[in-house]
């Protein structure tokens, strides 16, 4: 039916649009996936026309398919019968439609009820509650379904959601800032008033807050709480505050630390503080992603487990130890065993990353 462009290109074009729409829900749908939908009407005279678009806006609210169909009905004067209109349509969605009653009724049921004849899906839903059942429901009702258009891009967009369901653990992102000579801070003790070393600049701080908004949880080690008293909230970017996670084997963190403010939930591990145990527990709580912001001991522990998916390192454009300050002691940056890829320079600081 796609006329001016090839069949394959047409499918990819509309799937690309689904991905753009899905991203509009980025900061508010977790632990749900980001989903976008496009309804295309095959008009004999005009060729393909996009007649509806929708996306999942917020956790607990309507799914993309429902919003897309509502959009189509709102903005199109359906001249022919509703049935005939939908029979002439293809619905594009970056994720398989759900088949179960959750917070909303199953989308596969709605598609069948509306008599949409063709459905193109980016990827199957790895959630065991769906996992192919949505596609099967459609096929059993005679809907023509194609799966796997731009599948790699669809999986990457929802890599946090995919990780939780396929690996049974949250997606893990490690992040730190270090000086050119490889330190993340000056060596400080809890009772001196030495301030933390500032490596990030205004722009890279904002980028970190964007990362906080993208992930469901944020974690730091005990010493970082004691020395920096961080808030770990998202203030320089719109979105929700992540769940704060820290460790306290010796019960040294009292409730006056910012990490215990009522701005977000806080989880403290004090008994078993090994990373595999923490990931296991977070998965049970349906946390699909965690950003680990340091310090070195915690990051080195995680690196040694191999349980991470991305690493982001900011290298400031100054040394800690200089001829003017030769006797300064620093906290060594984590030891990372692989080469990171250069990404960009922001106000003089170089950003490196690794996405596995
Ligand atoms: N530049 C940056 O990006 C950045 C970011 C964050 C922090 N920092 C700096 O990093 C410094 C703190 O780093 P740090 O390496 O000393 O401490 P840390 O990683 O913040 O905390 C480590 C402490 O957490 C406790 N812990 C409990 N379970 C653990 C586990 N499984 N693995 C590792 N630690 C565990 C241990 O204390 P117990 O033995 O008492 O249980 C350990 O000494 C501060 O100076 C802070 O300002 C820099």
Structural description of this entry:
The model has no long low-confidence stretch (mean pLDDT 93). Strand 1 (36-43) and strand 2 (47-55) form a beta hairpin. With 356 residues, the protein is of the alpha/beta class. The strands form three sheets. The protein has an eight-stranded mixed sheet. A five-stranded mixed sheet has the order 2-1-3-4-5, with helices on both faces. A two-stranded antiparallel sheet has the order 7-13. The longest helix is centred in the first third of the chain and has 17 residues, at 7-23. The protein is built from eleven helices and 15 strands. It has two domains: 7-158, Cytidine Deaminase, domain 2 (3-Layer(aba) Sandwich), CATH 3.40.140.10; 168-355, Dihydrofolate Reductase, subunit A (3-Layer(aba) Sandwich), CATH 3.40.430.
First CA to last CA: what distance?
A: 38 Å
Count of helices? 11
Considering DSSP H and I runs of 4 or more, what fraction of the residues is helical?
Answer: 25-40%
Structural class: alpha/beta
Question: How many strand segments?
Answer: 15
Name given to the CATH homologous superfamily of the largest domain: Dihydrofolate Reductase, subunit A
pLDDT < 50 stretches:
none
> Can you give the mean pLDDT?
93
Shape: elongated
Indicate the radius of gyration in whole angstroms: 24 Å
CATH level 1 name of the largest domain: Alpha Beta
Q: Based on the structure given, which CATH architecture of the largest domain is correct?
A: 3-Layer(aba) Sandwich
Query: Remind me, CATH topology of the largest domain?
Result: Dihydrofolate Reductase, subunit A
Spatial order of the strands in the main sheet?
A: 10-9-8-11-6-12-15-14
